[in-house]
């Protein structure tokens, strides 16, 4: 464990004016509070907060952040209180520690709706003080470095959460080195064989070609010296996960990948960056389409650099990044550069962004508590996307994710412009709204009075702001239709448990589900954002519980190893009573398929992954989803009768989606929750006998064929 003196020495390297006595007091307080606590590895627990603080010194952060790292687990895991921390170290530190504690308590890997809500809370915590997330990222980095001491299932959970949330968040904040390390540490847990395979191939490649990095670095230095440019040149092989991702994206083997080496050139001035680019392109051939100038068009997190890819020795491609020292500091620390110290004073880096403005860019379009899912989708789009820069007719720059369309451009200017958009001109030429925009293009949006967003725009739009605005507008247009459909679904759902969907019952459900009123509840039910089961359960939870004598879904399948988990395959949706087989997945347990599922052909060459399974004999609860492909007449009351019939068969409708609308017929997909195959056949026979039902089939995703009723 690093001593207090050594930690203070690390801080003094960049901040000679640090309050050493305050850091030492925090060290002693944390050590005292965590006394007697140990990590899974057997080390004293306090070694973890100290290591987190040491990671933050690499980003040259202020005293308050270092002290927060030392105390970040005290309020949650020890007898220390918020008041005590505030009294000893000030309100600033206490608020930061409390913020980290709240982040730690967010279960970011739970199911989607909950995850969306927690993601919003995460960003709200960040908006108060971004240093909270800097401490949390350093905390996650150290936990991933020491993850081997955890139980295997816990390792997989933490690694998946790291890969999905924390690694892209670090990248979005500009800390690319941390993103790469987090990804690689998670990759080591989630796919150890894949990672080892990449490393083995690297070793073989180095044995065959020698030290490529050393040779190319020398060549670059020689070219820069010839051009009279003073610069530092660094080369490295890309991380195993980065290479694995390229292999997956390009569907290529390792031997066919070319740009597996990266080189960085640090110059003295912006002018030298462009002179360096010229020298590199004179010596090596540039690869078309692989040039990006983030100096003239920086990323929103302050990142500036020139990126180019050139063909090096033996036709191998290498990626080159060119930047100044100040740009490099921001590239290493990202948004954290705002708090960085150098020689005892806050770093005056002209490229560091204001964290408050940065976070506002991600959250400004979400002004309602109801948009958790939209918020999650938009944040993921923002974090995983690269950017293109386009111009308005007046010459203003609009930043958009790669793949953005004129629809996204219109909404980026103003929601009103987006709603009224009927067309666009790109570089003076009229183009379809689905056109993908490219760097440097000038875009002119054509609007018309009376225009409103179309459903098809959701397939065209890429940015979170555009998709959220379109959904809101469509929701208002479709609100009455959704409310009407929601009433039918609610009536059938309540009748299924012997109750009526009265206004009072719906008001109670809306209040329990934290919705504005029953009209909002019915609109969400009709648009499939809620299920009838959730609405009924909100009012009558005791009526929706499993029958006490029914077989628990957790032990519904026989043939699993002790403690082994299973999931029903979404492609074939197997039901109790069907012959089934299992396919094992590392870290996920077993996926159960119907014996006639087409997807099983994908595993014919992997017999070791097959598990012989069968359903437990006895009565099962009606919790197993199946999808019916239904074509019904377009007459008043038909859908209501169909919902009633399904309810009479004690089958709960969990989702309903129209897939085709004709003047005479509707085709829709209905998700029903059933006990077993026998109930499915009984339900389909009854629906087939109904005069207003033109066709009923069981829908299976992979086969897209039906099991005929009876």
UniProtKB/TrEMBL annotation:
One of its GO terms (molecular function) is GTP diphosphokinase activity. The keyword Hydrolase applies. Residues 45-144 form the HD domain. GO terms for cellular component: plasma membrane. GO terms for biological process: guanosine tetraphosphate metabolic process; nucleobase-containing small molecule interconversion; response to starvation. It comes from the Bacteria. Residues 382-447 form the TGS domain. Its EC number is 2.7.6.5. Keywords: Hydrolase. It catalyses: GTP + ATP = guanosine 3'-diphosphate 5'-triphosphate + AMP. Residues 627-701 form the ACT domain. NCBIfam families: spoT_relA (TIGR00691). This is GTP pyrophosphokinase rsh. It comes from Ruegeria conchae.
